[in-house]
Amino acid sequence: MNQPISGNRRQAALGFIFVTATMDVLSLGVMIPVLPNLVKMLGGGDTAAAADWVVLFATTWGVMQFFCSPILGLMSDRFGRRPVILTSIFGLGVDFLFMAFAPNLWWLFVGRIFNGMTAASFSTASAYVADVTTPENRAKGFGLMGAAFGVGFTFGPALGGWLWQFDHRAPFLVCAALALCNWLYGFFVLPESLPPERRQPRFDWKKANPVGSLHLLQRHPGLLGLAGVGFLFQLAHNVLPSVFVLYMGFRYGWSPATIGLTLMASGVSGIIVQALVVGRVVKAVGERGALLIGLFSGFAGFMIYALAPTGFLYLCGLPLFALSGLIQPGLQGLMTRRVLPNEQGQLQGANSAMMGIASIVGPPLFLLPFAFAVRHDAALHLPGLPVLIAAALMLAATALAYAKARPAPAPEPQAA
């Protein structure tokens, strides 16, 4: 399995990485409707206090990812994608075991630190896709990654909400088992995608840090602007794991099981977009057009989520928001065209570092206004305040993409 793939096996490898990514996201999806409730339970049942704890957990995870993602990205360029993916999956499994047996909130905190240090499976899988696809078919390949994301979030939240009814620790034990199965699958089945001759000749610590990642974004024309679009999108997207479980429970009175089914419906919509819409849209309007459509659809969907006074009207926004699934295939397609094969891991490490910043800034940006809105609901009547902030960020990302998302110049080789 450590031998690099070639020829027709490159297309088959997409199937391998799809399964790996799906199992990874499935385990995360199981956690979404139950982790905030576990925090709330361990914290004494106070919704506002639970929001404050979730801020601490998410911010800590983001700090770890910010500093460690560039290291893991460069490691995948130097040593291959496979060992980094396996390391990340192992870290995810350890985190779930901490959640399953945590007697208090501080044990959860330790698990978040460990997971943040190793969280690179999805970003390295994106570099894997770039390795085994041509630039012309790359957006379709990233659409496959989006489909994996959709499958995981279709069944994961519903499974998590269902398991929560029987035992509050069961969802996390199932997640740990899924991570173990994912690791075993990767160890025995997943081949390497980056041949030795295309790897970085050495591991340079000057590049393996957030500043080095920023230098990569500055070195290639147009890449920094696209990274800014990705950052605004990721920052806005942080509203989903940060407040949506608490928001839907508070505003609409939904149980974890109902929230899980709602997230399942969102996932089904996302799968439909990835399977039936992404390829056609990219072919018709290009990667830039797909990116702009996805960003504006995300803005409109967030507006509906924020202002919907009833659960039924909230659900009406699901199909529109699902079109935000066009964002990542379009954005990743534009970005990966601008770097060399032995820089794809660095690029994804830089993207993950930006995601880490978004994970640091996002939770307080959304959870603190939510806590304020909940505490002053009688006077404010605006529990959707954090979602309105996310909508504004998505609109800003749309404007930046309109200005910066241009056809990619060919990257120039850099001296070793």
Automatic annotation (TrEMBL):
Q: Which UniProt keywords apply?
A: Membrane, Transmembrane, Transmembrane helix, Transport
Q: How does it sit in the membrane?
A: Multi-pass membrane protein
The lineage's top-level taxon is Bacteria
Pfam families in the cross-refs: MFS_1
Query: Does the record carry Aminoacyl-tRNA synthetase as a key word?
Result: no
Keyword flag NADP: no
Q: Which residues form the Major facilitator superfamily (MFS) profile domain?
A: 13-409
Transmembrane portions of the chain = 12-33, 53-72, 84-107, 113-130, 142-164, 170-190, 223-248, 254-277, 289-306, 352-372, 384-403
Q: Which PROSITE patterns does the entry mention?
A: MFS, SUGAR_TRANSPORT_1
UniProt cross-references to InterPro entries, sorted A to Z: MFS (IPR011701), MFS_dom (IPR020846), MFS_trans_sf (IPR036259), Sugar_transporter_CS (IPR005829), Tet-R_TetA/multi-R_MdtG-like (IPR001958)
Q: Where does it localize?
A: Membrane
Broad class of the protein's primary localization: membrane
Q: Which family does it belong to?
A: Belongs to the major facilitator superfamily. TCR/Tet family.
The UniProt function text for this chain reads: Resistance to tetracycline by an active tetracycline efflux. This is an energy-dependent process that decreases the accumulation of the antibiotic in whole cells. This protein functions as a metal-tetracycline/H(+) antiporter.
What name has this protein been given in UniProt?
Answer: TCR/Tet family MFS transporter
Native organism: Caulobacter segnis
